[in-house]
Amino acid sequence: MAHGTPDSPEAIAPFYTRIRRGSPPTPAQLAELEQRYAAIGGVSPLTERTRAQVDGVRAALEALAPGRYVVAFGAKHVDPDIEAAAAVLAASGVDTVIGLVLTPHGSSMGAGEYLARARAALDGACHFVAVPHWYAHPGLVALLAERVGAALAAADADRTPVLFTAHSLPERVLAGGDTYPQQVEESARLVAAAAGVPRWQVAWQSAGRTQDTWIGPDVLDVVRQLGRRDDTDGVVVCPIGFVADHLEVLYDLDVEAAAAAAAAGLRFARTRSLNDDPRFIAVLADVIHAAAEAA
Questions:
Q1: Buried (b) or exposed (e) across 131-151, using 16+ Cβ within 10 A?
Q2: Rounded CA gap, 189 and 91, in Å?
């Protein structure tokens, strides 16, 4: 399961209405989102990237256990949606459904919503097993550490901090004991340690335009603050909460954060996205297979 994205400029307006739970955006809000998509080429590559990930997982699971797995994809905000994917699996005659959300961390407002929708759609037709948070998987940590190292290769690591970013959430979500920020902090610590990074911190990005207070500090604010320090020449951003190129990476980081760094007099680099890297696909297949074996 993944977020989903509009696959054409014409699909942006209905997509925006859908993520706003049926409330159409104002003309100004729509124009701003359309401008963001235009800045990255008109549409996000997320549909293509997710399709490649799903195809890769299907092939990896078939190689791992021939004939055992049926793979279906469902999106949160576009078709085929989560409910359609659940129906496909139920109709295929499987007795157990393994739910994997394509985000390594979990929150009640994030992965929790995907999993709840899948469980409700199956309505007891199959045994449902949710894949546990997988941000600490050794294979994932190693992959991200390598990417951090590559981004730092041409920089002075002592003068170039690494910012590990994830999608911000409203602070009210944390009132019930949601551990999302702690998970992100822990995964950043693991990757920083594996990469031997001397300076790092967690920053948050892509906060929604609502009246809520969102988790901070915001990555743009952190970049501006770093620009005022005498011991900092550049910044590397690792979007540790995201597994593919999409709007929040290609615009919020590669355009907005890069511009903030340039204005602050800092060199900017961003770690390469995981996308359908075969080693990442192997991580996904491993966590699915482990959940199936445990079930």
A1: bebbbebeebbbbbbbbbbeb
A2: 43
- What digits encode the pLDDT tens for the residues 189-248? 999 999 999 999 999 999 988 889 999 999 999 999 999 999 999 999 999 999 999 999
CA dihedral 201, 202, 208, 212 (to 10 degrees): -90
- Number of Cβ within a 10 Å radius of residue 25: 18
User: pTM surpassing 0.85?
Assistant: yes
Contact 242, 206 (CB under 8 A): no
CA distance 74 to 54: 10
Domain 138-270, architecture per CATH: 3-Layer(aba) Sandwich (3.40)
